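hi! just following up on the protien thing from before. the input was this:
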Amino acid sequence: MKWFMVKTFFLTILMFLVVLFGMQQASEGITKMKGYNDANFKGAFTVHENDSGGFQASILGNDVSSHDLEQKKVKLEEMKAYNFFSTMGKRLSEGISTMTETVVHFITDFIREK
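and the predicted 3d structure came back as:
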């Protein structure tokens, strides 16, 4: 049993090291495939702090401000889009909440009567 545990431990360590080595090789392969290291390469979503202390976000290189998000929110509220599944989910949750509340009141009333 002792040798089995030792072999399992070393095999686990070996597999962990092989995975780390594979991740490093994949990272180098991606860099080689790109052809160069670009320090200016940005991710899909970045957040920067302004000089005034506020935050500025950009998605895929396009700047996004809170004003844009507010306009979109107002536009969606004006559209009053009907979502069947959202409505059904709300009704289901209200029904379950009401049923649970009724059961709890019934149980507490039953316990108080005894």
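The first helix runs from residue 2 to 34.
The chain has two domains: 1-36, 66-114.
cheers
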